Amino acid sequence: MLGLLELQRQMCGTVRGQGASEPPGLYRPTHLPPGHPLSVYRNNHRISLAAALAVTFPTVTKLLGADAMQVVAGRFLMLHPPRQPCVAEYGNDFAGYLEGEALAGELPYLPDLARLDWALNRARTAADAMPYSAQDLAAESSDQLGDLQFVPHPSLTLLESKYALPQVYQAIHGSTLATTAREGKPCHLMIWRQLQDARFAAVGANVFASAQAIAAGGRLIDACKILQPSTLPDFMAHFLCSGAFVGNSDQLC
What architecture (CATH level 2) is domain 127-253? Predict the structure, then answer.
């Protein structure tokens, strides 16, 4: 007699179509057509996960079309079954998987587009935290500003690409469907949750590098040294105090 863990493993492998042996003792109702007794569950498993990926990656789905996305999602889930209890968290490996898909040859920006979709999904579902605000900045002592440190808000993703992702994204979700994106127009994106909604903003390379430095635990003075003086006020107002960062826990106590 199978132990519970082994039975669960066999059931899981069979439903996922991974070639696992069929659990013994399955009931086979005589009034149903002959065939695999778990086929309905296998089919539902595949369809529901493909539908979940389509929701999580709406830009990729709109670009490829629903039918093509279902085919790609079916191949993906065979290699990368879910390992999280929440379906909304499924798809972390999808962008990397797309790099090996034949579609990436025709649409080389597709993996980065999937990374943008995933970052927006993460921004919507990430844990909440009290963001650093302009009021917090105004309350800081001027002689200690340079030593301030921050941590990224749980919703923040810093994404860079050699393709013009914002233009492609807007075209796909606009009236004209984009099918090409010129390489050589790199973009640097900050994606986070602001006012309870996911958003992204394209920033310059220096601002992006400063955001990376802060996210890695660097001091504010070190991050500011990367910036041009003319961009410093914009960085402080629109990014440091935009909700993308959280004050250091020692400073918030």
Answer: Alpha-Beta Complex (3.90)
Lowest mean pLDDT among 85-89, 105-109, 172-176: 172-176
Query: Taking the model in full, what pTM does it have?
Result: 0.82
The four Cα atoms 34, 35, 37, 39 give a dihedral, to 10 degrees, of: -140
Cα–Cα distance measured from residue 124 to residue 106, given in angstroms and rounded to the nearest whole number:
30
Distance CA 81, CA 49 (A): 9
Residue that the structure tokens 């179509």 belong to? 17
Copy the structure tokens of residue 220: 């504010």
Location of structure tokens 């001091």? 219
CB-based contacts of 19: which residues, under 8 Å, 6+ apart? Answer: 13
Q: Give the domain ranges of the chain.
A: 1-107, 127-253
Distance in angstroms (rounded) separating the CA atoms of residues 124 and 120: 6
